[in-house]
Every structure is written in C-alpha cells, then in structure tokens.
Design goal:
119 residues
Length: 119
Amino acid sequence: MAREWKRFAYLVVLMTFMMFLSHGTQDLYPDFLQEVHKLSAATRANVAIIYNCGAIVGAIIFGHFSQIAGRRKGMMAGLGLVLLVIPLWAFGHSLPIIILSAFLIQMECKAPGELFPCT
C-alpha cells in the first residue's frame, strides 16, 4: 500500500463523489419535491418509481455501451449527460418535465456506478 497511496487516494475520492452523485440524486429528491414543488406523497412515490425504472434502463444501456467503448468512456458519457439534464431536474416547473428529468438523471447517474466492478 505504501507504493500505491496515490492510486488508493484517487479511488477513495472517486468512489466518494460517485456515492454523492448516486445518493444525492435519489435519496434526497423526494424531500426536494415535497419542499419545493409541494407534491403529495402519492405523486412523490410515483415519481420515485419512474426514476428507479430509469436507473435500471440506464444500467442496461450504459452497461452495454461500456462493453463496446470501455468503462471510462461509459462513465464519462453518463456523467456528461447528467450535466445536461441537471437544469431540468432541479428547475422543472411542470410535473411531466420533473418526471422526465428525474428518469433521465437516474438513467445517467446510476450508469457510471454500475460500471465499477466493486459495486
């Protein structure tokens, strides 16, 4: 371990940020929908069901893409697409936009986490 401390530190930082991305976008989003958009509990539950389906779809699509292009390119594609969806996800003003953006953000942000062999 003494020789590989830089690599170990890199992996710790990388996995920490992947955990922030994954859990920050999924676990806290129902509270955000309640406080900011004033959605009912039933609506928040339905949105959560839909965005969790997005995570499954993203894992399949980006898993296949990573087999073709490689893990790094698969991760970078997912994270790059997350950056494009964040404004809709955070500032969507209608329920269809909120649902679509939540589906897309989970599809794209769960994909890089699924590409790690240790997750």
